[in-house]
Amino acid sequence: MNKYIEQLKQDGKLNKxxxxxxxxxxxxxxxxxxPCSVESEEMIVYMAKKLKSLGVxxxxxxxxxxxxxxxxxxxxxxxxxxxxxxxxxxxxKTAKEETGLPIVSEIMDVKQxxxxxxxxxxxxxxxxxxxxxxxxxxxxxxxxxxxLLKRGTWATIDEILGAVERLLVGGKARVAICLxxxxxxxxxxxxxxxxxxxxxxxxxxxxxxxxxIPIIYDPSHSTGYRNFVPAISLAAMAAGADGLAIESHPxxxxxxxxPDQAITVATLxxxxxxx
Length: 275
Fold this sequence. Notes:
The protein is about 35% helix and about 15% strand. The protein has about 280 residues and is α/β, with parallel strands linked by helices.
């Protein structure tokens, strides 16, 4: 154990609960995949069946979808307005009933924890924008649910551990950390404009030294570019990640959100075979 970690212990910043947590994913690698947003019942059920056939472990899909530019991203022929919301949850529930896949989906506010949401979502995703929304973390930490906590794009390792601890002190939630890229201005962004973040793969072994919390890596957001997703997926697994959260879509170029980073089912299959 290095001196810095020993100092964290002495300062009380490395809580025993972070090391003693026993909950882990049922298999490794644990693969979460699906579209950024639920666009229709037909699409999400189709994807669920395709992903189930590949051996994907959980279906992801945004029913509530916060957008950086809400005005320009709220128009859709199917009523999509930063997600289909309750209708999107119903579509996810249908996909779950038809395939048996567990559902991973974001909750942005405690008001969204409806009976439908609780019945549908098996792993509540806390998005990067809500990473330090302590009121939300306090409420979700009291639920008997699996939680996928996405790292804030600015967050230090201390802040990650603090957010996890806040969820765990509720006594019921089972938490996994999702690393999804951090603030940075890559020198290649002028060539690949969809790249918004810098991959944070080194955080995987760093966290593994400090806690026993499972780590999921998101190669989709951390690259922003579908051609880089396979390589970063392999790198994350080599660095010790417990699984991956990968955006997939039946026709990625026409995805209603984040089209540049979504991959096809065929590409996902190749990644799963490689890891």
